[in-house]
Amino acid sequence: MRRRSIDITALISSSIERISGEPLLNLKALHGIGVDIQESGALSEDELKSLLGSQDLLVDALLGTGSKGAPRGEILRIIRSMRGSAPVVSLDIPSGVDPSTGKTEGEVVNAVLTVTMLARKTGLEIMPGRGLRGDIEVVDIGVPPEFLLRRNSSHTLIEGADVSVMLPPRGSGVHKGDRGLVLVIGGSSRYGGAPVLSALGALMCGCGGVVVAAPARVCAQSMCHPEMIFMEGVSEGGFLSSRTWDAALDMWGDRIDSVVIGPGLDRGEPSRELFRRVWNEWKGPLCVDGDALFALGRWPERPCRPENSVITPHEGEAANMLAKERRSISSSRLGSVLELSGLFGTTLLKGAATIISDGNRVRVIPFIVPGLSIPGSGDVLAGVIGALLGMGLDAFDAATSAAYLHALAGRELEHDIGIDGISAAGVASAIPRAISIVRLENGECRL
Question: H helices of 345-423, where?
Fold first, then answer.
């Protein structure tokens, strides 16, 4: 850069006298080509801000991949002085972001580009670190990655090829009985649309049938959705009661392949008792969403978790389930999803760059789709999970595939119409397009 007549200033956060070894050799090389070298500690607050504010580009190399905790001392002072200055390019990871988790504590650098060495770091893919890295460029440092990186990492950034392998094959002889029957239990006097959106998500994902067990006001929508089977549940005070579960088992018990419970269920005691019965009694695949998560979080004695279950909290619901503040969940999403999955089984923590964990492994969805921040989006996702569970996918694969397809559908809609104006029903309708993209991009042909 110096050879191209670009003026460079190297700002050192420690005393030059304390630098030794290879860093000292590099420092001498910079000095030899005429780079201006300054110690930040020798500058006043005004001088430091003036220096940083006069640059066209800042390169953040304050903290590397071995850093932990909040920035302190002189590094903290520099980060604060960078606010409102030139665009920042970070080396390896934005200073203040935990490279292993994406967690942030205290002040942090917000980069427009992160140039990371050898391979992507976990902290660059998980919020909030994901939102601070800007664009990302992985550069070769002349060492084969397998020499330095841990093999068989438990953390995976999911791609379309991964999902393609998880999805069930579709041969010419496929029958609707092979696609699974999903039971959606939800709705209340206040929330009538949520279970219908879940059922729509399940249908658009390709399930063989969907039964909606809901209050009478929800079932009144049956003429608008002739593909769905509506079963009027038993209500008490505007909430579905546990007798709804008895009715569903009597009518459909031997045919149900998966259950989705919670969309629009509301938080009355009858609905909470209904959820507790389903959690304890249903031995098949289960997706727990919405107000059923509230009931799970408020259960006095922590229940044993079903083997093939998925819970789908957003950060607010996760905070309730872990008895923490929401900002604690937001700042430590990886730690939160691991804690939840250890307590309740496979967990899908919704949000930008959704995370899924089965307690041991972690999968991260690469998309940030602001257009999905709409009412009913999570209900659709729950239905897609239910469909994939009913098709025979295990909980971890079903949650992963559903999250990827849901995010991809939202991204496609953003490309079509922009971030604003996307509806939950529109997201459901875009799920088949997302499935086709995944299948076709990875070599599967249409029949």
Answer: 377-390, 395-417
pTM of the model: 0.90
What span, in angstroms and rounded, lies between the C-alpha atoms of 413 and 11? 45
Kindly give, in sequence order, each residue whose CB lies less than 8 Å from that of residue 72, ignoring residues fewer than 6 positions away. Answer: none
* Omega before 375 within 30 of 0, i.e. cis: no
Residue 12 parent element (H or E): strand 9-12
DSSP state of 232: E
Environment class of 142 (CB within 10 Å of its CB; exposed 0-12, middle 13-18, buried 19+): exposed
Q: Per-residue b/e over 26-62, b at no fewer than 16 CB within 10 Å?
A: ebeeeeeeeeeeeebeebeeeebbebbeebeebbbeb
Q: How far is Cα 410 from Cα 9, in angstroms, rounded to an integer?
A: 44
Q: Which of 75, 153, 148 is nearest to 107 (CA)?
A: 75
Q: Are 264 and 294 in contact (CB under 8 A)?
A: no
Q: Which helix or strand (DSSP H or E) is residue 202 part of?
A: helix 194-204
Which strand ranges, in their side-by-side order, compose the sheet holding 355-357? 155-157, 362-364, 355-357, 346-349, 309-311, 286-288, 258-261, 181-185, 209-214, 229-232
Whole-angstrom CA distances from 425 to 202, 377, 405 are: 12, 8, 15
Residue 121 CA from chain centroid, whole number: 16
Segments of 123-177 assigned E as strands: 135-139, 155-157
Query: Which residue shows structure tokens 């030794």?
Result: 20
Residue 380's CB is within 10 A of a number of other CB atoms, namely 34
- 64 and 89 Cβ atoms separated by less than 8 Å: no
- Alpha-carbon span 206 to 177, nearest angstrom: 11
Which regions of 263-413 does DSSP assign to beta strands (E)? 286-288, 309-311, 346-349, 355-357, 362-364
Percent of the chain with pLDDT over 90: 71
Encode pLDDT of 230-263 as tens digits. 999 999 988 999 999 999 999 998 899 999 999 9
List Cβ neighbours of 421 (8 Å cut-off, separation of 6 or more). none
- Give tens-digit pLDDT for 76-85: 999 999 988 8
Domains and CATH numbers, the chain: 43-150 (3.40.50.10260), 160-441 (3.40.1190.20)
